[in-house]
Design goal:
The chain has 369 residues and is α+β, with helices and mostly antiparallel strands. The protein has a domain of 150 residues: 2-Layer Sandwich (Yope Regulator, Chain: A). It has 11 helices and 17 strands. It has a 5-stranded antiparallel β-sheet. Helix 1 packs antiparallel against helix 2 and helix 6 crosses helix 9. The longest helix has 31 residues. It is elongated. The two termini are 14 Å apart. The structure holds zinc ion (2 copies). One zinc ion binds next to loops.
Length: 369
């Protein structure tokens, strides 16, 4: 199976899981509407995620009623929130004290391709503080006309890293919300949820969407080979075009072009530069990577100045992001994939690798072949 197919299969699987869960949620809602809570509980328990809790289900368990959550928020500066990946999107639900009283707020965040574009634009910006406001405006303008509603606003919320967290929010007075079933019913009337399929973009973004982000003063660049949003200013990969995903990073699968190759090549901004993979001369200097211990060179013509393996794949990727960390930490993660580091050379990524190993973000790259 080619890399393109692997990626498509992965997206297809995610989409299938999302659809199954959406059907399950719809069933739960209709059972709750009919007042049959016991039956609703059975439907909740019937899905493939039956045994695994989500941050939101844990939150509900920890705070049996809305008033219990508000009481905790009182002692926590007036806000309590829960970031939870739902099969239809990335949501943050919170209870916030506002001048007019307590409000229940739901924020929907960009996911997959759109999230990668936000991250790449932010990394590319000269002035990253200014970029946050430019991104907020771009995301507001990017919402299709028919999905815009005056009650939905584009907001910046607290991130677990320096990567900004920007999304679309809708809130309502928490007055009258007693149980979490009340909240679930109230959510049914929130137009915000109509944006979820748009926020979760599994396909390559159109050039028009990149152009819209550029119109807002951002540096939005798409790779001509695969369509991914790329940046040359990732802290682990200075001067190298990298995509923000957690598998490919600097490697382009050329899925928009012919000539996919088993030998790994980089992203290109200009289609004319998408050359086929080159051959090594055999005279490249070699050393070992101190993290994965594979033999590496920084003189392969496809990866000049970047450590790549000397096997047939020429992989510049030492490790990928592991599964550690909470859902919101993973969402805010700046790391995409990790580069090799020569045994005898100082590597600026070392501290990030150490940190990532400690919390389980670090996973050795698959050894192909
Ligand atoms: Zn590419
Ligand atoms: Zn390595």
């Amino acid at each position: 199976m080619g890399k393109k197919n692997v990626k498509s299969a992965k997206y297809a699987k995610q989409a299938k899981q999302r659809r199954a869960a959406a059907a399950r949620h719809a069933a739960v809602f209709s059972e709750i509407l009919r007042g049959d809570r016991e039956r609703a509980a059975t439907v909740i328990g019937s899905g493939p995620r039956a045994s695994s809790s989500t941050p939101w289900s844990d939150f509900i368990d920890a705070h049996p009623t809305v008033a219990d959550a508000v009481a905790v928020a009182e002692g926590a500066g007036g806000v309590i929130s829960c970031f939870s990946v739902d099969d239809s999107g990335e949501f943050e639900r919170s209870l916030r004290r506002e001048p007019d009283g307590w409000r229940y707020e739901v924020v929907l965040y960009p996911w997959i391709s759109l999230r990668d574009l936000v991250k790449a634009c932010w990394l590319n910006a000269e002035d990253r503080d200014q970029a946050v406001e430019q991104l907020r405006r771009a995301l507001a303008a990017d919402v299709p006309e028919e999905l815009r509603h005056p009650e939905v606003e584009t907001v910046v919320r607290t991130s677990t890293s320096q990567v900004p967290r920007i999304g679309w929010a809708q809130s309502l007075s928490s007055e009258g919300l007693v149980t979490w079933e009340d909240v679930a019913l109230a959510e049914k009337g929130m137009s915000l949820f109509g944006l979820a399929p748009y926020a979760c973009e599994t396909e390559v973004l159109s050039e028009a969407r990149f152009a819209l982000f550029r119109e807002h003063g951002l540096i939005a660049q798409a790779c001509a080979g695969c369509g991914a949003a790329v940046s040359e200013r990732h802290p682990h990969w200075p001067g190298v075009l990298v995509a923000m995903d957690h598998e490919y990073g600097p490697v382009c699968d050329r899925s928009l072009l012919e000539g996919e190759s088993w030998q790994q090549v980089g992203h290109v901004l200009d289609v004319a530069r998408a050359r086929p993979a080159s051959k090594a001369t055999g005279t490249e200097r070699k050393t070992r990577c101190r993290h994965c211990e594979r033999e590496i060179t920084d003189q392969h013509p496809d990866w000049p100045g970047i450590w790549s393996t000397v096997d047939r794949y020429r992989s510049p990727i030492c490790a990928v992001v592991g599964s550690g960390g909470s859902e919101d930490q993973v969402y805010d993660l700046i790391d995409c994939v990790y580069p090799h580091a020569a045994v005898d050379e100082d590597c600026p990524v070392d501290s990030a690798v150490t940190r990532a190993r400690d919390i389980g973000y670090y996973a050795p790259a698959l050894r192909l072949g």
